[in-house]
Design a protein that fits this description.
With about 425 residues, the chain is of the alpha/beta class. The protein has 2 domains: about 150 residues, Aspartate Aminotransferase, domain 1 (Alpha-Beta Complex), CATH 3.90.1150; about 260 residues, Type I PLP-dependent aspartate aminotransferase-like (Major domain) (Aspartate Aminotransferase, domain 2), CATH 3.40.640. Helices cover about 35% and strands about 15% of the residues. Strands 4-12-11-10-7-5-6 form a 7-stranded mixed sheet, sandwiched between helices. Strands 1-2-3-15 form a 4-stranded mixed sheet. Strands 13-14-16 form a 3-stranded antiparallel sheet. Strand 5, helix 5 and strand 6 form a beta-alpha-beta unit. The longest helix is centred in the last third of the chain and has 22 residues. It is globular, with a radius of gyration of 22 Å. The protein starts with 9 loop residues before the first helix and ends with a helix. The chain binds pyridoxal-5'-phosphate.
Protein backbone atom coordinates (compact mmCIF):
# COMPACT_ATOMS: atom_id res chain seq x y z
CA UNK A 1 0.00 0.00 0.00
CA UNK A 2 1.28 3.49 -0.76
CA UNK A 3 2.12 5.83 2.09
CA UNK A 4 -0.65 8.15 3.09
CA UNK A 5 -0.01 11.88 2.92
CA UNK A 6 -2.17 13.17 5.74
CA UNK A 7 -1.21 16.81 5.84
CA UNK A 8 -4.31 18.91 6.31
CA UNK A 9 -8.08 19.03 6.22
CA UNK A 10 -9.98 18.63 2.96
CA UNK A 11 -11.36 22.14 3.33
CA UNK A 12 -7.92 23.70 3.75
CA UNK A 13 -6.36 21.64 1.03
CA UNK A 14 -9.20 22.51 -1.37
CA UNK A 15 -8.91 26.21 -0.52
CA UNK A 16 -5.18 26.11 -1.10
CA UNK A 17 -5.48 24.27 -4.44
CA UNK A 18 -8.18 26.71 -5.55
CA UNK A 19 -5.69 29.56 -5.32
CA UNK A 20 -3.85 28.15 -8.32
CA UNK A 21 -6.35 25.78 -9.96
CA UNK A 22 -9.50 27.59 -11.20
CA UNK A 23 -12.45 26.35 -9.16
CA UNK A 24 -10.22 23.78 -7.47
CA UNK A 25 -11.08 21.25 -10.19
CA UNK A 26 -9.42 20.11 -13.41
CA UNK A 27 -12.76 19.86 -15.23
CA UNK A 28 -15.83 22.02 -14.71
CA UNK A 29 -18.26 19.10 -14.49
CA UNK A 30 -16.30 17.59 -11.63
CA UNK A 31 -17.13 20.22 -9.02
CA UNK A 32 -19.46 19.48 -6.09
CA UNK A 33 -19.79 20.93 -2.60
CA UNK A 34 -17.48 19.71 0.18
CA UNK A 35 -15.02 18.06 -2.21
CA UNK A 36 -12.64 15.67 -0.55
CA UNK A 37 -9.05 16.12 -1.71
CA UNK A 38 -7.51 12.81 -2.75
CA UNK A 39 -4.36 11.46 -1.17
CA UNK A 40 -4.09 8.01 -2.74
CA UNK A 41 -6.20 5.19 -4.16
CA UNK A 42 -6.18 1.40 -4.24
CA UNK A 43 -8.59 -1.10 -5.76
CA UNK A 44 -12.03 0.53 -5.55
CA UNK A 45 -11.02 2.81 -2.67
CA UNK A 46 -9.83 6.40 -2.57
CA UNK A 47 -8.39 7.92 0.60
CA UNK A 48 -8.59 11.66 1.16
CA UNK A 49 -6.01 13.93 2.81
CA UNK A 50 -7.78 13.47 6.16
CA UNK A 51 -7.36 9.70 5.90
CA UNK A 52 -11.07 8.99 5.18
CA UNK A 53 -11.76 6.18 2.75
CA UNK A 54 -14.41 6.19 0.01
CA UNK A 55 -15.73 3.38 -2.14
CA UNK A 56 -15.10 4.88 -5.55
CA UNK A 57 -17.90 4.74 -8.13
CA UNK A 58 -16.40 7.59 -10.13
CA UNK A 59 -13.58 5.39 -11.44
CA UNK A 60 -11.76 8.41 -12.84
CA UNK A 61 -14.99 9.29 -14.71
CA UNK A 62 -15.06 5.88 -16.35
CA UNK A 63 -11.62 4.66 -17.41
CA UNK A 64 -10.70 2.69 -14.28
CA UNK A 65 -12.53 -0.46 -15.27
CA UNK A 66 -10.22 -2.58 -13.09
CA UNK A 67 -10.06 0.00 -10.31
CA UNK A 68 -6.96 1.80 -9.08
CA UNK A 69 -3.54 0.20 -9.46
CA UNK A 70 -4.71 -3.10 -10.85
CA UNK A 71 -1.53 -5.21 -10.73
CA UNK A 72 -1.71 -6.36 -14.37
CA UNK A 73 -2.54 -2.97 -15.86
CA UNK A 74 -0.07 -1.09 -13.68
CA UNK A 75 2.77 -3.50 -14.37
CA UNK A 76 2.07 -3.39 -18.12
CA UNK A 77 2.33 0.42 -17.97
CA UNK A 78 5.39 0.40 -15.71
CA UNK A 79 7.18 -2.29 -17.74
CA UNK A 80 6.62 -0.33 -20.89
CA UNK A 81 7.95 2.86 -19.30
CA UNK A 82 11.00 1.20 -17.78
CA UNK A 83 11.91 -1.21 -20.53
CA UNK A 84 10.67 0.35 -23.74
CA UNK A 85 10.76 4.10 -23.32
CA UNK A 86 7.98 6.62 -23.14
CA UNK A 87 7.64 8.17 -26.61
CA UNK A 88 9.12 7.41 -30.04
CA UNK A 89 7.40 9.53 -32.67
CA UNK A 90 7.77 6.45 -34.88
CA UNK A 91 5.41 3.58 -35.60
CA UNK A 92 6.04 0.57 -33.38
CA UNK A 93 4.69 -3.01 -33.28
CA UNK A 94 2.55 -2.50 -30.19
CA UNK A 95 0.38 -0.02 -32.15
CA UNK A 96 -0.49 -2.81 -34.57
CA UNK A 97 -1.16 -5.22 -31.70
CA UNK A 98 -3.48 -2.72 -30.00
CA UNK A 99 -5.31 -1.94 -33.26
CA UNK A 100 -5.80 -5.62 -34.05
CA UNK A 101 -7.36 -6.12 -30.61
CA UNK A 102 -9.68 -3.15 -31.17
CA UNK A 103 -10.66 -4.33 -34.66
CA UNK A 104 -11.54 -7.75 -33.23
CA UNK A 105 -13.98 -6.08 -30.82
CA UNK A 106 -15.44 -3.05 -32.61
CA UNK A 107 -17.56 -3.93 -35.66
CA UNK A 108 -16.93 -0.74 -37.69
CA UNK A 109 -13.15 -0.81 -37.13
CA UNK A 110 -10.80 -1.80 -39.93
CA UNK A 111 -8.27 0.91 -39.15
CA UNK A 112 -7.61 3.06 -36.09
CA UNK A 113 -5.87 6.33 -35.27
CA UNK A 114 -5.11 6.95 -31.58
CA UNK A 115 -5.60 10.17 -29.67
CA UNK A 116 -5.09 10.99 -26.00
CA UNK A 117 -8.72 11.69 -25.15
CA UNK A 118 -12.29 11.19 -26.21
CA UNK A 119 -12.48 14.89 -27.00
CA UNK A 120 -9.80 14.58 -29.66
CA UNK A 121 -11.50 11.44 -30.98
CA UNK A 122 -14.91 13.08 -31.57
CA UNK A 123 -13.21 16.21 -32.94
CA UNK A 124 -11.31 14.10 -35.48
CA UNK A 125 -14.42 12.11 -36.43
CA UNK A 126 -16.20 15.37 -37.21
CA UNK A 127 -13.32 16.70 -39.29
CA UNK A 128 -13.17 13.41 -41.17
CA UNK A 129 -16.91 13.56 -41.90
CA UNK A 130 -16.53 17.11 -43.20
CA UNK A 131 -13.45 16.24 -45.25
CA UNK A 132 -15.08 13.20 -46.80
CA UNK A 133 -18.47 14.76 -47.60
CA UNK A 134 -17.24 18.34 -48.24
CA UNK A 135 -20.24 19.57 -46.24
CA UNK A 136 -20.20 21.76 -43.12
CA UNK A 137 -23.00 20.90 -40.74
CA UNK A 138 -23.00 18.27 -38.02
CA UNK A 139 -26.00 16.91 -36.18
CA UNK A 140 -25.70 16.37 -32.45
CA UNK A 141 -28.44 15.44 -30.01
CA UNK A 142 -29.70 17.50 -27.12
CA UNK A 143 -28.16 16.50 -23.78
CA UNK A 144 -25.26 14.64 -25.40
CA UNK A 145 -21.70 15.26 -24.24
CA UNK A 146 -18.87 14.53 -26.67
CA UNK A 147 -15.95 16.30 -24.99
CA UNK A 148 -14.87 19.91 -24.76
CA UNK A 149 -14.10 21.09 -28.31
CA UNK A 150 -16.19 23.98 -29.60
CA UNK A 151 -18.32 22.12 -32.12
CA UNK A 152 -19.90 19.88 -29.49
CA UNK A 153 -20.09 22.26 -26.50
CA UNK A 154 -23.66 23.00 -27.49
CA UNK A 155 -26.80 21.79 -25.69
CA UNK A 156 -24.84 19.33 -23.56
CA UNK A 157 -27.57 19.54 -20.94
CA UNK A 158 -31.29 19.30 -21.39
CA UNK A 159 -33.02 22.48 -20.35
CA UNK A 160 -36.53 23.77 -19.81
CA UNK A 161 -36.06 26.01 -22.85
CA UNK A 162 -35.48 23.03 -25.07
CA UNK A 163 -36.59 22.44 -27.66
CA UNK A 164 -35.96 25.28 -30.00
CA UNK A 165 -34.54 22.76 -32.47
CA UNK A 166 -32.33 22.81 -34.42
CA UNK A 167 -30.91 25.90 -32.67
CA UNK A 168 -28.64 24.77 -29.87
CA UNK A 169 -27.79 26.53 -26.63
CA UNK A 170 -24.10 27.30 -26.01
CA UNK A 171 -22.80 25.21 -23.11
CA UNK A 172 -19.81 27.49 -22.69
CA UNK A 173 -18.89 31.09 -23.19
CA UNK A 174 -16.43 31.63 -26.02
CA UNK A 175 -18.17 29.85 -28.89
CA UNK A 176 -18.49 31.63 -32.23
CA UNK A 177 -21.77 32.19 -34.06
CA UNK A 178 -20.48 30.06 -36.93
CA UNK A 179 -19.88 27.14 -34.58
CA UNK A 180 -23.43 27.41 -33.29
CA UNK A 181 -24.75 27.51 -36.84
CA UNK A 182 -22.72 24.51 -37.97
CA UNK A 183 -23.96 22.22 -35.19
CA UNK A 184 -27.66 21.36 -35.45
CA UNK A 185 -29.28 20.06 -32.29
CA UNK A 186 -32.05 17.49 -32.53
CA UNK A 187 -34.08 15.64 -29.87
CA UNK A 188 -32.59 12.27 -28.85
CA UNK A 189 -34.65 9.15 -29.61
CA UNK A 190 -37.06 11.15 -31.80
CA UNK A 191 -36.81 9.13 -34.99
CA UNK A 192 -39.45 11.01 -36.92
CA UNK A 193 -37.96 14.44 -36.19
CA UNK A 194 -34.43 13.31 -37.00
CA UNK A 195 -35.37 11.65 -40.29
CA UNK A 196 -37.45 14.60 -41.41
CA UNK A 197 -34.71 17.10 -40.57
CA UNK A 198 -31.97 15.04 -42.20
CA UNK A 199 -34.03 14.53 -45.36
CA UNK A 200 -34.71 18.27 -45.65
CA UNK A 201 -31.10 19.37 -45.07
CA UNK A 202 -29.14 16.42 -46.39
CA UNK A 203 -27.00 18.37 -48.83
CA UNK A 204 -25.55 20.45 -45.95
CA UNK A 205 -24.97 17.67 -43.40
CA UNK A 206 -21.56 16.01 -43.11
CA UNK A 207 -22.22 13.76 -40.15
CA UNK A 208 -24.64 12.65 -37.48
CA UNK A 209 -22.86 12.26 -34.16
CA UNK A 210 -24.75 10.15 -31.65
CA UNK A 211 -24.03 8.68 -28.24
CA UNK A 212 -25.83 5.32 -28.35
CA UNK A 213 -26.33 5.79 -24.64
CA UNK A 214 -26.87 9.40 -23.63
CA UNK A 215 -24.19 9.38 -20.95
CA UNK A 216 -25.35 12.44 -19.03
CA UNK A 217 -28.66 10.68 -18.43
CA UNK A 218 -28.00 6.95 -18.74
CA UNK A 219 -30.59 6.83 -21.48
CA UNK A 220 -30.17 4.17 -24.16
CA UNK A 221 -30.89 4.95 -27.77
CA UNK A 222 -33.81 2.93 -29.04
CA UNK A 223 -32.76 0.37 -31.62
CA UNK A 224 -35.31 1.74 -34.07
CA UNK A 225 -33.81 5.24 -33.66
CA UNK A 226 -30.30 3.99 -34.45
CA UNK A 227 -31.54 1.87 -37.36
CA UNK A 228 -33.37 4.80 -38.89
CA UNK A 229 -30.35 7.06 -38.47
CA UNK A 230 -28.28 4.36 -40.17
CA UNK A 231 -30.67 4.03 -43.09
CA UNK A 232 -31.17 7.70 -43.80
CA UNK A 233 -27.49 8.66 -43.43
CA UNK A 234 -26.50 5.86 -45.80
CA UNK A 235 -29.13 6.99 -48.25
CA UNK A 236 -28.04 10.65 -48.15
CA UNK A 237 -24.25 10.13 -48.15
CA UNK A 238 -23.90 11.40 -44.56
CA UNK A 239 -21.47 9.78 -42.12
CA UNK A 240 -22.98 8.17 -39.05
CA UNK A 241 -20.61 8.56 -36.10
CA UNK A 242 -21.11 6.65 -32.86
CA UNK A 243 -19.52 8.19 -29.80
CA UNK A 244 -18.68 5.00 -27.89
CA UNK A 245 -16.15 6.67 -25.60
CA UNK A 246 -18.17 5.51 -22.59
CA UNK A 247 -19.95 2.45 -23.92
CA UNK A 248 -17.27 0.40 -25.74
CA UNK A 249 -15.12 -1.81 -23.52
CA UNK A 250 -17.42 -1.07 -20.59
CA UNK A 251 -20.98 -2.18 -21.33
CA UNK A 252 -19.37 -4.94 -23.38
CA UNK A 253 -16.30 -5.32 -25.56
CA UNK A 254 -17.86 -4.21 -28.83
CA UNK A 255 -19.98 -1.29 -27.67
CA UNK A 256 -23.59 -0.67 -28.60
CA UNK A 257 -22.77 -1.13 -32.30
CA UNK A 258 -22.14 -4.77 -31.45
CA UNK A 259 -25.32 -5.32 -29.40
CA UNK A 260 -27.63 -3.29 -31.65
CA UNK A 261 -26.19 -4.57 -34.92
CA UNK A 262 -26.24 -0.97 -36.21
CA UNK A 263 -22.78 -0.34 -37.61
CA UNK A 264 -21.69 3.29 -37.84
CA UNK A 265 -19.25 4.73 -40.39
CA UNK A 266 -16.90 5.97 -37.68
CA UNK A 267 -16.58 5.43 -33.94
CA UNK A 268 -14.95 7.55 -31.27
CA UNK A 269 -13.43 5.41 -28.50
CA UNK A 270 -11.63 6.14 -25.24
CA UNK A 271 -12.00 5.87 -21.46
CA UNK A 272 -12.08 2.19 -20.34
CA UNK A 273 -10.05 1.10 -23.39
CA UNK A 274 -6.84 2.37 -21.76
CA UNK A 275 -7.48 1.01 -18.27
CA UNK A 276 -6.89 4.49 -16.79
CA UNK A 277 -4.03 5.72 -18.96
CA UNK A 278 -5.02 8.67 -21.23
CA UNK A 279 -6.42 7.31 -24.49
CA UNK A 280 -8.84 7.95 -27.30
CA UNK A 281 -9.24 6.60 -30.81
CA UNK A 282 -11.02 7.03 -34.11
CA UNK A 283 -12.02 3.74 -35.71
CA UNK A 284 -13.59 3.09 -39.08
CA UNK A 285 -13.38 1.28 -42.40
CA UNK A 286 -10.31 1.70 -44.62
CA UNK A 287 -12.26 3.64 -47.26
CA UNK A 288 -12.83 6.47 -44.73
CA UNK A 289 -9.69 6.17 -42.59
CA UNK A 290 -7.64 6.41 -45.78
CA UNK A 291 -8.53 10.14 -45.86
CA UNK A 292 -6.17 10.63 -42.91
CA UNK A 293 -3.21 8.90 -44.57
CA UNK A 294 -0.61 11.47 -45.65
CA UNK A 295 0.58 9.22 -48.48
CA UNK A 296 -2.64 7.35 -49.21
CA UNK A 297 -4.83 7.50 -52.28
CA UNK A 298 -6.01 11.07 -51.67
CA UNK A 299 -4.57 14.20 -53.24
CA UNK A 300 -3.05 16.63 -50.70
CA UNK A 301 -6.11 18.91 -50.61
CA UNK A 302 -8.36 15.99 -49.64
CA UNK A 303 -6.23 14.72 -46.77
CA UNK A 304 -7.78 15.23 -43.33
CA UNK A 305 -5.19 16.33 -40.79
CA UNK A 306 -4.83 14.37 -37.61
CA UNK A 307 -1.77 14.48 -35.41
CA UNK A 308 -0.66 14.69 -31.80
CA UNK A 309 2.73 14.59 -30.09
CA UNK A 310 1.68 11.93 -27.61
CA UNK A 311 -0.54 9.83 -29.89
CA UNK A 312 -0.03 6.05 -29.63
CA UNK A 313 2.84 6.23 -27.18
CA UNK A 314 4.21 2.80 -26.24
CA UNK A 315 2.89 3.30 -22.71
CA UNK A 316 -0.64 4.06 -23.90
CA UNK A 317 -0.50 1.04 -26.22
CA UNK A 318 0.61 -1.14 -23.31
CA UNK A 319 -2.46 0.12 -21.39
CA UNK A 320 -4.81 -0.70 -24.28
CA UNK A 321 -3.31 -4.15 -24.88
CA UNK A 322 -3.34 -5.11 -21.20
CA UNK A 323 -6.88 -3.82 -20.71
CA UNK A 324 -8.48 -5.45 -23.73
CA UNK A 325 -6.67 -8.74 -23.11
CA UNK A 326 -7.77 -8.75 -19.48
CA UNK A 327 -11.37 -7.95 -20.45
CA UNK A 328 -11.31 -10.74 -23.04
CA UNK A 329 -9.64 -13.35 -20.88
CA UNK A 330 -11.33 -12.90 -17.51
CA UNK A 331 -14.92 -12.78 -16.31
CA UNK A 332 -14.51 -9.12 -15.26
CA UNK A 333 -17.42 -7.88 -17.39
CA UNK A 334 -19.72 -10.63 -16.09
CA UNK A 335 -18.80 -9.84 -12.47
CA UNK A 336 -19.37 -6.13 -13.03
CA UNK A 337 -22.73 -6.94 -14.57
CA UNK A 338 -23.74 -9.13 -11.61
CA UNK A 339 -22.70 -6.49 -9.07
CA UNK A 340 -24.43 -3.74 -11.02
CA UNK A 341 -27.67 -5.74 -11.14
CA UNK A 342 -27.50 -6.09 -7.36
CA UNK A 343 -27.04 -2.32 -6.90
CA UNK A 344 -29.77 -1.52 -9.40
CA UNK A 345 -32.19 -3.95 -7.73
CA UNK A 346 -31.37 -2.56 -4.27
CA UNK A 347 -32.01 0.99 -5.44
CA UNK A 348 -35.34 0.03 -6.99
CA UNK A 349 -36.31 -1.75 -3.75
CA UNK A 350 -35.40 1.34 -1.70
CA UNK A 351 -37.48 3.57 -3.96
CA UNK A 352 -40.45 1.29 -3.18
CA UNK A 353 -39.61 0.93 0.52
CA UNK A 354 -39.34 4.66 1.20
CA UNK A 355 -42.03 5.62 -1.34
CA UNK A 356 -39.71 8.16 -2.90
CA UNK A 357 -40.30 9.11 -6.51
CA UNK A 358 -37.25 8.01 -8.46
CA UNK A 359 -35.93 6.07 -11.44
CA UNK A 360 -32.72 4.24 -12.15
CA UNK A 361 -31.37 4.57 -15.68
CA UNK A 362 -28.25 3.28 -17.39
CA UNK A 363 -27.17 -0.14 -18.52
CA UNK A 364 -24.79 -2.76 -17.12
CA UNK A 365 -22.07 -1.18 -14.97
CA UNK A 366 -23.37 2.32 -15.64
CA UNK A 367 -26.02 3.30 -13.12
CA UNK A 368 -27.75 6.64 -12.77
CA UNK A 369 -30.26 7.75 -10.15
CA UNK A 370 -32.94 10.40 -10.71
CA UNK A 371 -35.37 11.67 -8.09
CA UNK A 372 -38.73 13.37 -8.54
CA UNK A 373 -39.78 11.39 -11.63
CA UNK A 374 -41.04 7.85 -12.18
CA UNK A 375 -42.16 5.39 -14.84
CA UNK A 376 -40.51 4.23 -18.04
CA UNK A 377 -38.03 6.76 -19.34
CA UNK A 378 -37.48 6.64 -23.07
CA UNK A 379 -37.07 10.30 -23.99
CA UNK A 380 -34.65 12.78 -22.40
CA UNK A 381 -37.37 15.41 -22.08
CA UNK A 382 -38.92 13.23 -19.35
CA UNK A 383 -35.78 13.81 -17.27
CA UNK A 384 -35.98 17.60 -17.28
CA UNK A 385 -38.42 17.45 -14.35
CA UNK A 386 -35.95 15.49 -12.18
CA UNK A 387 -35.27 16.93 -8.74
CA UNK A 388 -31.63 18.03 -8.95
CA UNK A 389 -31.61 19.46 -5.41
CA UNK A 390 -32.57 16.05 -4.01
CA UNK A 391 -29.79 14.49 -6.12
CA UNK A 392 -27.26 16.87 -4.62
CA UNK A 393 -28.47 16.05 -1.09
CA UNK A 394 -28.26 12.32 -1.79
CA UNK A 395 -24.75 12.74 -3.19
CA UNK A 396 -23.67 14.53 -0.01
CA UNK A 397 -25.33 11.92 2.24
CA UNK A 398 -23.46 9.16 0.43
CA UNK A 399 -20.19 11.05 0.60
CA UNK A 400 -20.59 11.41 4.36
CA UNK A 401 -20.86 7.62 4.52
CA UNK A 402 -17.79 7.04 2.40
CA UNK A 403 -19.46 6.41 -0.96
CA UNK A 404 -18.24 8.52 -3.88
CA UNK A 405 -20.59 8.79 -6.86
CA UNK A 406 -20.16 11.18 -9.78
CA UNK A 407 -22.17 14.37 -9.11
CA UNK A 408 -25.52 13.96 -10.85
CA UNK A 409 -25.65 10.54 -9.14
CA UNK A 410 -23.91 8.45 -11.74
CA UNK A 411 -22.00 5.33 -10.72
CA UNK A 412 -19.47 3.31 -12.68
CA UNK A 413 -19.10 -0.18 -11.25
CA UNK A 414 -15.61 -1.60 -11.79
CA UNK A 415 -14.18 -5.10 -11.61
CA UNK A 416 -12.44 -4.04 -8.37
CA UNK A 417 -15.75 -3.70 -6.51
CA UNK A 418 -16.19 -6.84 -4.39
CA UNK A 419 -19.25 -8.20 -2.60
CA UNK A 420 -18.37 -6.45 0.68
CA UNK A 421 -18.13 -3.10 -1.17
CA UNK A 422 -21.51 -3.71 -2.78
CA UNK A 423 -23.05 -4.66 0.60
CA UNK A 424 -21.56 -1.58 2.25
CA UNK A 425 -22.87 0.59 -0.59
CA UNK A 426 -26.39 -0.84 -0.33
CA UNK A 427 -26.55 -0.14 3.40
CA UNK A 428 -25.26 3.42 2.76
CA UNK A 429 -27.99 3.84 0.11
CA UNK A 430 -30.55 2.70 2.69
CA UNK A 431 -29.35 5.24 5.27
CA UNK A 432 -29.26 8.00 2.66
CA UNK A 433 -32.85 7.20 1.61
CA UNK A 434 -33.91 7.37 5.29
CA UNK A 435 -32.31 10.79 5.67
CA UNK A 436 -33.40 12.25 2.32
C1 LIG B 1 -19.63 10.17 -24.48
C2 LIG B 1 -18.36 10.94 -24.29
N1 LIG B 1 -17.66 11.33 -25.37
C3 LIG B 1 -16.51 12.02 -25.26
C4 LIG B 1 -16.02 12.35 -24.03
C5 LIG B 1 -14.74 13.12 -23.91
O1 LIG B 1 -13.73 12.27 -23.47
P1 LIG B 1 -12.44 12.89 -22.71
O2 LIG B 1 -12.92 13.41 -21.40
O3 LIG B 1 -11.50 11.73 -22.64
O4 LIG B 1 -11.93 13.98 -23.58
C6 LIG B 1 -16.70 11.98 -22.87
C7 LIG B 1 -16.20 12.33 -21.52
O5 LIG B 1 -16.85 12.23 -20.53
C8 LIG B 1 -17.92 11.27 -23.01
O6 LIG B 1 -18.64 10.90 -21.93
Amino acid sequence: MPQSHIVKSNANAFKSISRVLPGGVDGNAKYFDNMPVASHAWGCHITDVEGREYIDYCCGYGPLIFGHNDPEITSALANSMINSGILYGLPHPSIEEAINLICDCIPCAEMVRFTNSGTEATMTCIRLARGITKRDKIIKFSGAYHGTHDGVMISTKLSENDPDYPQGQPSSAGLTKNTLQDTCILPFNDTEYACRFIAEHSNEIAGVLVEPMLGNYGLLAEKEFLENLRNITKDKGILLIFDEVVTAFRLNLGGIQKTSGVIPDLAALGKAMGGGYPIGAVAGPTKYMDYIAPHGSKVASEVVWHSGTYNASPVAMAGVIATINKLKNTDALAIMDKNSKQLRQALNNLIQKYKIKGVITGDGPFIQIFFGIEGDITRPEQLIAADTEKSKRFHQLLLQQGIFLIPGLRAYVSAAHGQSDIDQTISAFDKAFQML
